[in-house]
Design a protein that fits this description.
The protein has ten helices and no strands. By secondary structure, the chain is mostly helical. Helix 2 crosses helix 4, helix 2 packs across helix 5 and helix 7 crosses helix 10.
Length: 196
């Protein structure tokens, strides 16, 4: 005995016209999307607390990530990662992805900043007069410390030693750049508040 399923009238019309009843993602696609969110959550869990503070996200997600960083048992961590993936379904992940890209140095803005700071470091090594520019652009800069790092970097290069001060100089310049960006961001927020 062959039984045909009883379908609503509009389903018959949709089948005759070739239209699908369901245009949403397949179960497999939903699983892949969830796995991608969990992977992004794992990247967030791997970040330091200082980096996480700089990334905008809902407080419940931030708390879940902090808990996952605390957990040491495999099963507890696995369940927490699933929770993070679930929480991320309700979050706009594009800003999180952009922040992770910047951390990894993937974004064009991060690459441009990296190259600009490398050029500034090279100019500082070549010309002591560039410190005036640094003092102007970064008012909070410790010029004495930067000069000492420059002298040490030049000595290291002359003596063919590992470039420890050279790297430290770059690190200091990067921190100055980040502090400057934070001040600009805070200034924009204050301006926005006064406009209301």
């Amino acid at each position: 005995m062959n039984k045909t399923p009883i379908l609503p009238a509009d389903a018959d019309e949709a089948m005759e016209s070739g239209d699908d009843l369901y245009d949403g993602p397949s179960k497999s696609q939903r699983k892949r999307d969830m796995a991608a969110l969990q992977a992004m959550g794992a990247e967030l869990v791997a970040l330091s607390s200082d980096r996480l503070k700089k990334i905008e996200m809902p407080e419940n997600l931030r708390d879940a990530i902090a808990d996952a960083q605390r957990f040491t048992k495999h099963e507890a961590k696995r369940r927490q990662m699933q929770l993070i993936g679930k929480l991320m379904r309700g979050v706009d992940v594009e800003p999180l992805q952009a922040a992770l890209d910047e951390v990894r140095g993937v974004s064009a803005a991060a690459n441009a900043k990296q190259h600009r700071l490398e050029r500034l470091r090279a100019r500082l090594i070549e010309d002591d007069g560039v410190f005036q520019e640094v003092a102007r652009d970064y008012p909070g800069a410790d010029i004495t410390r930067l000069r000492q790092l420059r002298r040490n970097a030049v000595k290291e290069a002359e003596q063919k030693k590992p470039p420890r001060a050279f790297r430290e100089l770059f690190k200091e310049l990067r921190e100055l750049e980040e502090q400057s960006a934070e001040k600009v961001g805070a200034g924009e927020t204050a301006t926005d508040d006064t406009d209301e």
